[in-house]
Amino acid sequence: MLPSYAASGSKVTPRHNAAAASFSNGYPRSSNTLEFSPHRFQPRNSPPSLRRRRKLLTRLAIVVVLVLFGVFVWPAAPVLSLFSLNLFSSGDYIDLETVRYYDLSNVQGTARGWEREERILLCVPLRDAEPHLPMFFSHLRNFTYPHHLIDLAFLVSDSKDRTLEMLVKNLETIQADTDPTEHFGEISILEKDFGQKVNQDVESRHGFAAQASRRKLMAQARNWLLSASLRPYHSWVYWRDVDVETAPFTILEDLMRHNKDVIVPNVWRPLPDWLGGEQPYDLNSWQESETALTLADTLDEDAVIVEGYAEYATWRPHLAYLRDPYGDPDMEMEIDGVGGVSILAKALVFRHGVHFPAFSFEKHAETEGFGKMSKRMGFSVVGLPHYTIWHLYEPSLDDIRHMEEMEAERIAREQEEKEKAEKAERMKKTFGDAGGQWEKDKAALQDIVIEEPAVAAGAGAAAGGAGGAGAAAPGAAGAPVAGAAAGGAAPAGAAGAAVPAAGAAGGAGAGDAAPGAAAGAPGAGAPAAGAPAGGAPAGGAPAGGVPAAGVPAGGVAALDAAVPNKAVPVVGEKVVIAENAQDAGKVVL
After folding, report:
1. Same-domain pairing of 83 and 198
2. Is residue 27 within 8 Å of residue 14, measured between CB atoms?
3. For residues 576 and 585, what is the distance between their CA atoms, to the nearest angstrom?
4. What's the pLDDT at 152?
5. Which of 172, 350, 374, 581 is the most exposed place for a label (fewest CB within 10 A)?
6. pTM of full prediction above 0.70
């Protein structure tokens, strides 16, 4: 049975409203009928249990997160900074502990970096360097660049001595210094072996055969050290060999003032005096030449040109050979290859990708390849020909052999001098002091010479009287005078040569006439019989005889007998003993 409103068409309520008709589906709209709308639902009085469970779990999760945040996060970071990701912070940097922010535009490197507090990374490759470390650390202490702005980086590789132990010891000493200005910044010590087989002696390291492979391994070591030590806050990188003997304390500032991308000083080494005193050392800093470029075109792809060897005649201008001790130390020279003893480079050079090629780059490797690569990428590379540092002298095998020979000669000379001194000492002890005896003999001879004139003068006076008596005796003209013969000449048989005597004062000789002679006697000055005129030698005396004045009869003969086979000329009151008659005739006083 249908409802009551279904029987009457006027009381049917339309299901949907119609804009153009007042009826819907044939049923009239009436306000007295029951209105039923299927699109309207009444809200439930309580939520279902599943929805309540979800809300509970959500609240518990929020509570747990808040607890964990309060325990682990709250003490270390402000809540606002954590949730806002620093959007409300007044600064420009991210304020997270694990985030580092660097503005690389502030680490480009300038000419006065010490005023801008620019940091320097000092890189030092080490291999069997134990003997050189004390000298190296003395140089570090003397640097005038602020020590706290210098970071040290060492790479110890393929060492067989106590290099690492001595390095740590010296670092601990310098960092524990009571003067805080002596302390350096960050210090890194790296260990990495590269299988370097070349020995560290001079002949092996600088021998031509080992250069190519040795340079490539050294390039690897430099790249490892640089890549592990370079930090974003470094403005400069300074490479320094540990065996530099002498360098200015201000070398960092001196090189930095030029404001070049890559700069190197001149490097010489001292030599012993017998080798010339000094010598250019680092020949790896040079300008390119047409001859070298032509040579490079003829070599294999992996060939490496090394300077200073006759095998590669490049005829390049070397920085070392242009040194003038009195030249301007700030004078610059554009170069293509650089040596590795002392290099100051801006850190941006390495950040641009320049490195030490461990392969043949334009027929060069390591530091020379670094210079060529820097030039290729447009960086400035200069050298200072008159700014010199001095490398330690390391003798070669030839130098060592020569020094051994010199040492052997010195020892032999000292031994010979010692033997001579010992021999002289033995002779002195055996025969007495020969020098003292000679002085005694010399004094005795001087006394004889002084006393002889007085004795000769007295004897001459006595002989003169006897000669006068003989001259007064009567005799035939031209007959020899007895007194004259006795006082004038020695017997013909006397040993040696006869010495004629001339008439002395107060007496007449063989050739003189006696004063006051009888009539018929020879005239005054006439020679006696057998005597030549003018006092010539009588009695067969040789022509070489020297007349003696004032010598008594028998005086010369007695002296001649005392000195056998000697001619004794007597001249003007001095006695001279000659070896023979010929020498005696040449004596001039």
Report:
1. no
2. yes
3. 11
4. 98
5. 172
6. no
